[in-house]
């Protein structure tokens, strides 16, 4: 039984394929097209999936789309009627697209699939539709290690739902509660993302990273004015402050007046007040999530929780939820965004639509989220030769020792191994690695490698067995989705008695591993396990032997504005366009100083900080 799940036409298109319930492959379309957050039909992701599964499209039993277009159209119509005549121009412009394409989604999908096939084929009878939040919930529950669990999905909006609670039991999964558009925690957070000068649907990480520099002094203002928050976590937003129902702009003048500050432009300096606003909406988000989860735990009696949807990528809130002990166990889908809903759609079809018996993996079913393309050593060598790259081939043990020594010497490493990660996090296969003990490394990585704001934090990848010696996190975090605090014995206490000094804190060394310790002593932690990534584990283990530090800086192998690298060519381009010192692809070792050719791309000039 082969099922392909498809996510497309909004943002972060992707595809996944499962065989008899087992996840075979999954990937985002952006990784192949090199268009960040590509929303087009996932041609390349589907082609990859069927190649990985060793089949063709004719062998696939079902193609499952991740949401229901008719329900979205219903929301569009009802929203327009509720706010008319506001938004008439945007409504008028969207109607032709809906009437010609989006309401004929089955036909459109069939045409796209047929164009991928060697022969003309009608796939219409194999195309089915899931619901948006059911797809998200299924991606979390069916991939989790739990037989029973509550499932919380939070995002901008699906068809109507923006927040939903489901209960999973075996192969059964039912949504029992929903909060509907326009009341949305995801859209609330994105409104503040836009207000503070970052891009919606991509800048939310920046808002989360900015929050620790400020104080949540506007938390009560937000709760009293913008949101009617109940004890059970249900909420309603005061729409008089927002424009997203009928305009491309998220907020209005009334919203700006509430904080006595005009919206920040991307090029403007970040002020202390911006930091305080970021801290405030982060605190409100955490409060809402904790209230919802407390209510769900009390009403359902479940001890396990699964999370999905874009808000589930807020790892700071996840860390607070974990420490609250509201649930005994928490598992988060690493591809929580819309690309992951493609996988959820396929799993929902298999277990709900077809009623198949569920298989549960005690670790989880995501295989470390290493579900993307891989390249053999012969392919890597051939591709590198074709672009005139200069490299040497190292045996495995020599390679590990050499790279660990490079890291000890302060070199920045482009690390490309095995299968590409599915989801937004690089987890040791498409990563940029560095020594976390360096006091200059955070600034160097941000400005010379990633070309992004200097305040952005980096994540530590730590050997799982060493976790409790360094951090207060007492659970596995293989997908970098929990924030924990550095243990006190590794901290360097500051002389300002904890008084927040904004970006001045970037000049202060606050721990033994300053490159991965945020200003509040927190860190977004990845635990590395032998079972899922032996080569990455071996590298950190060797670095630990040399330095006594079982941790590496791990950030995604890309520059801002570009997707994570997928192919050896992508990796080489990024290597040559940045100040990465060494590139390792498979067993191929490349030093920057020996490369004779250069890539015709000046990354730093091509990417602004908007």
Write the layout of secondary structure elements.
Elements: E1 2-7, E2 14-19, E3 22-28, H1 30-33, H2 43-53, E4 62-65, H3 69-83, H4 88-100, H5 105-116, E5 127-129, H6 132-141, E6 148-154, E7 161-169, E8 172-180, H7 185-195, H8 204-210, H9 219-226, E9 227-229, E10 235-237, H10 253-259, H11 272-300, E11 304-308, H12 315-324, E12 329-332, H13 338-353, H14 377-386, E13 392-393, H15 396-408, E14 413-416, E15 430-434, H16 441-450, E16 459-463, H17 467-470, E17 482-485, E18 522-528, H18 534-547, E19 551-556, H19 568-577, E20 582-585, E21 588-591, H20 603-606
Parallel strand pairs: 1-4, 4-5, 6-11, 11-12, 14-20, 16-18
Antiparallel strand pairs: 1-2, 2-3, 6-7, 7-8, 9-10, 13-21, 14-15, 15-19, 16-19, 17-18, 20-21
Helix pairs in contact: 6-13, 7-11, 9-11, 11-12, 15-18
Overview in brief:
With 610 residues, the protein is α/β, with parallel strands linked by helices. It is 36% helix and 18% strand.
Count of structural domains: 3
Q: What is the CATH level 1 assignment of the largest domain? A: Alpha Beta
Query: Count of DSSP helices?
Result: 20
| SS elements, strand count | 21
Q: Which strands sit side by side, in order, in the main sheet?
A: 13-21-20-14-15-19-16-18-17
| CATH architecture call of the largest domain | Alpha-Beta Complex
Q: Give the oligomeric state of the chains in this entry, treating copies of one chain as homo and distinct chains as hetero.
A: single chain
DSSP strand (E) fraction? 15-25%
Identify low-pLDDT runs.
600-610
Helix residue percentage = 25-40%
Largest sheet: 9 strands, mixed
CATH homologous superfamily identity of the largest domain: Carbamoyltransferase, C-terminal domain
Return the CATH topology of the largest domain. DHBP synthase
Taken from the alpha-carbon principal axes, the silhouette is: globular
C-alpha-based Rg, rounded:
24 Å
Distance between the termini: 45 Å
